[in-house]
Amino acid sequence: MFIYNFLLPRVQESRWICLLQVNYKNGILVGSLFIQVITQNNLKPFSLVSSHSIWFLLAKMKPNNFILLFISLLLLTVLNLSSGKDHGNKGGNGDHGKKHDHNNHGQGHGNEKESSCPQLERISRDITWRRSAANPALPAKLLRMHFHDCFGCDASILLDSTGGTEAEKEAVPNRSLAGFEVIDEIKAKAEEECPGLVSCADIVALAARDAVAFQFRRSLWPVSFGRKDGRVSLASEANATLPSPAANFATLRQQFQSLGLDVVDLVALSGAHTIGVSHCAAFSDRIFNFTGKGDTDPSLDPDYANFLKQKCSNPPSLTTTVDMDPGSSLSFDSHYFEALFQNKGLFQSDATLLTDPEAARLSRTFQNQGAFFARFGQSMVKMGSIVSGEEGEIRKNCRVVN
């Protein structure tokens, strides 16, 4: 393993110091970045970025820095070849306990670097990109499905209700989820190619990644494999664990910490609201009855609040939707964080990011698209590795247990 240290140009009022770690494994050059940001004379760790994100960051470099890095990579490659050592990382299999026991975050659950079905990534990409081309709103739907499933990452969100038991998809926050037919199509094709090898949970994670990738024709983060499909799906559990759009910062931080996710993850993952829409019911009280006196949240931009009132009736329609990122709801970008500082965060859970000094500082940093994409990718990897805690299985049909 060799490390090369270089400086990236200034981003707003910050300076990035980057450590590039380069490994050579099985004829492939593998790299990762450790970025530190100097903001207001403080050195602060920022992110560990996989090789999938390196090339986006390199595009931001000055030519002289890029030339230095290119020469260094050539030298490092020669040195690694001559050393004959393998510095790669190995994935693993893990134990699962009880349903949604998050004490072992990411340990041996979805940590295999390669799928047991070599064709899976091609299958997912082809189907997801074809579907996204036909329906520009689909990437937001598949990303949201992954979020709602990944307070366990076990595809329990896909199970249909049985008997008198309501499944997770029947919980109020999940009733507007869509894209299940895409998962079904990927699963059916995967079963043709690799019967019994591909879990629905892995497909949900992969489809979300590929849906966002469609806009760029490249992946913004890697997906690991090896997740198992849960056998339990309860609407009551989803209602209790999913973050509320009306949550304050303390509540959000506690919910994310309980899953092994920190404040940086909280802010970065909130940026997923850069695509997609919301039904008016999710924020109706904020514009029509904020304190129970028929008032509007004073932290909202007045013109934006009036726009929302014109779009949404009171009481709210069950069908009317509003862009979560004003004017940019079909483009995955950093505009969400710009809207926050214009007081146009749609939910209270968005606006509350500015009430915490660290979260506000991160939100300003993430206005830079390169910084946001890099950290979002890392946080998606962390979220996608959350342990459900159940023994699990590989379902034959994603909608029912075996």
Shape: globular
- Could you spell the SSE succession in H and E letters? EEEEHHHHHHHHHEHHEHHHH
Tally of individual helices: 15
Major sheet: order of its strands?
1-2-3-4
Outline the low-pLDDT stretches: 1-60, 76-108
Give the C-alpha Rg: 22 Å
Helix amount: 25-40%
Secondary structure tally: strands = 6
Q: Which structural class should the secondary elements be placed in?
A: alpha+beta
- Mind describing the biggest β-sheet? 4 strands, antiparallel
Q: Overall pLDDT, averaged?
A: 80
Q: Strand share of the residues?
A: 5-15%
How many angstroms does the end-to-end distance come to? Answer: 44 Å
Plain-language structure description:
The protein starts with a strand and ends in a 19-residue tail after the last helix. It has helices at 51-58, 63-83, 120-134, 138-149, 180-193, 200-213, 235-241, 249-257, 263-270, 284-288, 302-311, 335-340, 348-351, 357-365, 369-383, and strands at 2-7, 14-25, 28-39, 42-49, 277-279, 321-323. The longest helix has 21 residues, at 63-83. It is of the alpha+beta class and 402 residues long. Helix 1 (51-58) runs antiparallel to helix 15 (369-383). The chain is globular and about 55 Å long. The strands form two sheets. The protein has a four-stranded antiparallel beta sheet. It is built from 15 helices and six strands. Helix content is 39%, strand content 11%.
